[in-house]
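Q: Structure tokens for this one, please.
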Amino acid sequence: MFKLCMLAAATLALAAAQDPAEGWMGYAKGVSPRGTGVITHAEAKWKVLSKPNNAANAFYSPWFGIESSDNLNLIQPVNPWTGRAWQMYIEYFQWEPEHNENSQGHIVSPGDVLHGVIDLDQSSQTYIISHTNLNTGWNVKTQIPVQRKLSGEYKEYTILYFVFEKTFACHQYPAEEVVTFYDIAVQYDNQTVAPTWTTAYVDDNCNNRAHILNETTISITWDTSM
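A: Here is the predicted structure, written as tokens:
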């Protein structure tokens, strides 16, 4: 559900009532292998893709994030192509009541390695998110309080997503036809686990698909020739 703080970029999540939302192409979904627990830590690295051709009007992103169990609250370090350059920032999207906020953003270069880290401060029920360019050292941090349910209890973030979002013409996506998330580490209730993964898609565009390579690596591929 990433969007930019600019007039040319509208939210990508208005057409559906919850996640996974319209605009998501290939994605991987992770849950606790025990079926219980709250995400207390999640992190991953990936490399910024090459500059796409003929993509001045395009706006899309690979990203990973964590989601509440009702699929209505999404915290995500994102890496969008904005039509002129790749950027990095942190986004929070809340469906009810609808609310979107973005951290400070920064332009990144093809080949830069990005490192997103999400940690739960359990004492304050606040997620602390860090997004770092490991090549330049640029970093942004933000804090997102956990929303309460109508009952007054805190929501629980139990789902991980690795996603390529927003449909455009196939030739407008990067030529390498793959983004790989690696060094994936996840904790539920402060215990490191190997999540149970499934893959799917919402919009079937350019054969964009997620692949579980191993416990710490997920790739998303596409076909620019379609």
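A few notes: The chain has one domain: 24-221. Confidence is low (pLDDT under 50) at residues 3-16.
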